[in-house]
Specification:
The protein is mainly alpha-helical. 67% of the residues lie in helices and 0% in strands. The N and C termini lie far apart (39 Å).
């Protein structure tokens, strides 16, 4: 089971996650199981599950609307910073419907002003991507992007420049 395999993940070894991703890449239920574990109280499990989700989606796996809704409902419970980062990096690969757009908006708005630079960078990226599908968030996304362009962290400024270049 995926949860048992994630017990091997120590929070650091990407090699373990790559092996798990490969093991489940053809499993049609793997994405749903990763979504179910995304807000696990065990940070390593949550971070591993969201890393897998991001990896599979970047690799071309699909996620159905039920799983997007399920992920949206878990966002408030998600406390692990790595899990939050992975979800922010995944927003552009999701078809976020109006039923959970506000949950993603709240999550991304908070991430865009987080203390961790990479979370700020990708929270801003996610907000911009969400706003392209849900224009009611465009003003907030513009403000976050303006803050990111002037951010003290080079990584945040770099992500903002990439967003502007797209």
């Amino acid at each position: 089971m995926l949860i048992d395999d994630l017990a091997e993940y120590d929070g650091k070894s990407v090699v373990v996650l790559e092996a798990i991703a490969k093991r489940y890449e053809d499993d049609p239920g793997a994405v749903s199981r990763a979504v179910a574990l995304a807000a696990s109280a065990d940070g390593h499990t949550a971070a591993g599950a969201t890393w897998l989700l991001r990896s599979w989606l970047r690799g071309g796996a699909s996620i159905d609307s039920h799983d997007v809704v399920s992920l949206g409902h878990r966002l408030r419970e998600m406390t692990d910073p790595w899990a939050r980062l992975h979800v922010c990096q995944t927003v552009g690969l999701l078809d976020i419907g109006p039923d959970v757009a506000v949950e993603f908006y709240d999550f991304l708005l908070e991430a865009a002003s987080a203390p961790r630079p990479f979370l700020r960078a990708w929270g801003t990226d996610g907000l911009v991507r969400l706003a392209s599908a849900h224009p009611q968030y465009a003003e907030a996304a513009e403000r976050a992007l303006e803050r990111a362009v002037a951010d003290e962290a080079a990584s945040v400024r770099a992500r903002a420049r990439q967003i502007l270049a797209e």
